[in-house]
Amino acid sequence: MEYVYGALLLHSAGKDIDEASLKKVLEASGMSVDSARVKALIASLKDVDIEEAIAKTAVAQAPAPAAAAPAQAEQPTQEKEEEEEEDDKGEEEAASGLASLFG
What we know:
Order of helices and strands: HHHHH
Mean pLDDT: 79
Largest sheet: none
CATH architecture of the largest domain: Orthogonal Bundle
CATH topology of the largest domain: Arc Repressor Mutant, subunit A
Structural class: mainly alpha
CATH class of the largest domain: Mainly Alpha
Distance between the termini: 74 Å
Shape: elongated
Low-confidence stretches: none
Number of helices: 5
Helix content: 55-70%
Number of strands: 0
């Protein structure tokens, strides 16, 4: 995959995708370069329109959230307030129970 990424990097920079350029990119990333793989990739990309290939394989964006989402967001707030009131009552009972222990 690194070889393909290197070719895409050269393409996005507007540089020619040839053996020497791809080797330089891969070596600059710290990789040991296999010349046979570089030659094979360059040969396979010879008749490929990279822009067209990218456009065909572009990932679709996620659909927008439904309009009902804001109405659903209000319900947990009301439930949370009720739970907090119950928690406060429980804390008061626990504190009064502890106070009875100490006199």
